[in-house]
Amino acid sequence: MGVFSNKIQREELKAGDHIYSWRLAYIYAHHGVYVGDGKVIHFTRGAGQEIGTGTVLDRFIFSSSPSHPADNTCPNCGDQSRLDGVISSCLDCFLSGGDLYQFEYSVSPAIFLVKARGGTCTLAASDPPEDVLHRASFLLENGFGVYHIFKNNCEDFAIYCKTGLLVFTSISVGRSGQAASLLAAASAVVSSPLRFLTTSSGGLAVVGYAMYSVSRLVSDIGIRRDITKVPVERLVSRAHLEELEVSPSAATLEEIPANAAKEQ
User: Fold this and answer.
1) Residue 261 in this model has a pLDDT that exceeds 80
2) Is 42 noted as a catalytic residue in this protein?
3) Is 121 marked active-site?
4) To the nearest whole number, what is the mean pLDDT of the chain?
5) b or e along 2-33 (b: 16 or more beta carbons within 10 Å of the residue's beta carbon)?
């Protein structure tokens, strides 16, 4: 993989890899975990519900669910276009005609900033493949909560499978680099007091990009402090997770209230 592209070939895939494919003219990417034998486990919503608002806005982003013409469904997967939640698909259905990319872990801050597009890498380290596959398989059977474009999306699912990390504050986005980049871009445009220090277009661009880069970096799970590691067997519903306002520096699994955690 190069500095500016994470594209890989199918023969390079290994079980436990976090992969993704761009959708809708590179506006967003769909993420999943490759589990071997040409299969991918991923978290999705049904057709027309990708952003999950229940409004007309849902129609502007195509579903990440695999889709085929009604008279030509996948012989391996069938018609999965209306499925919600954690599903298993063949690699072709997951890619939906797009190219194959691999999400990178344990990158340096410099590489993270060079890869300015969110949702391609993180400073956080990946766990061993056997742990990644165990989480993905468990969640395929037990679910990953309710889909939310900012707090619990397909990238959040793949990152959790790779790291076991969960966000425990209700005021911030999830682990998704795509969501963090979107909010960072908005913040750079409307929230930076530094933009008043210059009136030149070049100066505004530099200030805006600097704010965007800093916002992305501090939102990455390899740096942020509002995360803690939770075994997949004790994964709780998203509603309960958002009620736990804990400090990851002091939080341990024993500090998670017993009535908030449930054995799946």
Assistant:
1) no
2) yes
3) no
4) 76
5) eeeebeeeeeebeebbbbbbbbeeeebbbbbb
